[in-house]
Amino acid sequence: MLVLRILGWLAVLGLVAGAGFWVLTMPRGLSAETLAAMPPGDAARGESIFWVGGCASCHAAAGAKENDRLKLGGGRVLATEFGNFAPPNISPDPEHGIGNWTAADFANSMLKGIGPGGEHLYPAFPYASYTRMELGDVADLWAYMQTLPPIPETAAAQTDLRFPFNIRRGVGLWKLAFLDDSPAVTIADASPEVLRGQYLSEGPGHCGECHTPRNFAGAVDTSRWLAGAPNPEGKGRIPNITPGGPVGDWSLADMVYFYQTGFDPDFDAVGGSMVDVQENLAMLPDDDLHAIAAYLAAVPPQASAPAAR
Ligand code: HEC
Ligand code: HEC
Predict the structure, then answer these.
(1) What distance in angstroms lies between residue 241's CA and the mean position of ligand 2's atoms?
(2) Ligand 2, atom 31: nearest CA belongs to which residue?
(3) Distance 241 CA to ligand 1 centre (A)
(4) Quick check: pTM over 0.85?
């Protein structure tokens, strides 16, 4: 019967589509050779990676100051159009945190967005930037994180997303399309200092995650790199930080002073989600801050979006 035949074909097509989805969304971790070449970490070097990486901004309690920023028990909620993301406990507690992970598990999470069970992690964890990090820096960061206090509690908040975003496997398709460890922009004749700043800003510093507009799928639009973006917290816009925006008038010294103190050249204090970022940047050595400033002065200028939102 024709109907049965059609149904039969539809079932076959469904299986093929399902198998295709399954294959396309398969987690692809770091290769065994890469992991074998992972150097032992140096905790002292890892401290500055921790601060430029901004881990405390999401994994420490909201409003945490001073030493409380080293308590990575989770508990915040990041509200987005896809639903609420809850950064988990990543303290060295073996039961409630990630204390029983291996260095390889950690490298796969930072560079490939894959958890130890092979599950895809959501890119609200900014591994789309961290994927540009050097393996040695990831090893140093891991060594440093072992020195932080274990927090023996599960994070209070839980991730809660709308369908279809609640299907973790689907993140595999997002990664196929958007996970890319090449530089976000090309800078002609970049000095070693600018290249260092590019690495810090596009990799661990993940500046583009807030300062660059996103496409329909929530991936940053590198053609408008650092051009400014709507503020997910609701009010106003996150500023354009290319030479085409207001910071085009700042000197390198103004920029470094802003990172160290939170004051811009008009002596206005930094606000919003940049407060945590600035407190983290203030922990970095001066030459790293100078490199980030030199990079921002060298990125392709972008026009700011009109003020209306
Ligand atoms: C913008 C917020 C944000 C920042 C910054 C951030 N994370 Fe996360 N992180 C998250 C979220 C959200 C998740 C949960 C992702 C998920 O559920 O798939 C997560 C998950 C993780 C996981 C997986 C934990 C698990 O139990 O599966 C690790 C490891 C991790 N982050 C480490 C870090 C480190 C190290 C840094 C700093 C270099 C960092 N994160 C910075 C938001 C963030
Ligand atoms: C979590 C989101 C977030 C991240 C990550 C982030 N910023 Fe910002 N940034 C902001 C917001 C929001 C503002 C506006 C602050 C205000 O209103 O005072 C801002 C402001 C700034 C300014 C001042 C611009 C002006 O016109 O006054 C500079 C410079 C800046 N950011 C540089 C950086 C650099 C460099 C990085 C990466 C190391 C970075 N930001 C990462 C959210 C972020």
Answers:
(1) 8
(2) 274
(3) 25
(4) yes
Residue 307 placed within a domain:
no
How much distance in Å is there from the Cα of 125 to the middle of ligand 1? Answer: 4
User: What is the C-alpha to C-alpha distance for residues 209 and 224, in angstroms, rounded to an integer?
Assistant: 12
Residue 29 lies in a domain: no
Assess whether the C-beta atom of 159 lies below 6 angstroms from ligand 1.
Answer: yes
Nearest residue (by CA) to ligand 1, atom 32, is 90
User: CB of 204 closer than 6 A to ligand 2?
Assistant: no
Can you read off the two tokens belonging to residue 107?
A: 């490298």
Is the distance from CB of 130 to CB of 53 less than 8 angstroms?
A: yes
Q: What is the pLDDT of residues 186-227, one digit of tens each?
A: 999 999 999 999 999 999 999 999 999 999 889 999 999 999
Q: How many domains does the chain divide into?
A: 2
Q: Are residues 174 and 215 in the same domain?
A: no
Q: Indicate if 40 and 174 belong to the same structural domain.
A: yes
**In which residue are the tokens 């004749």 written?**
189
The identity of residue 165, as a single letter, is F
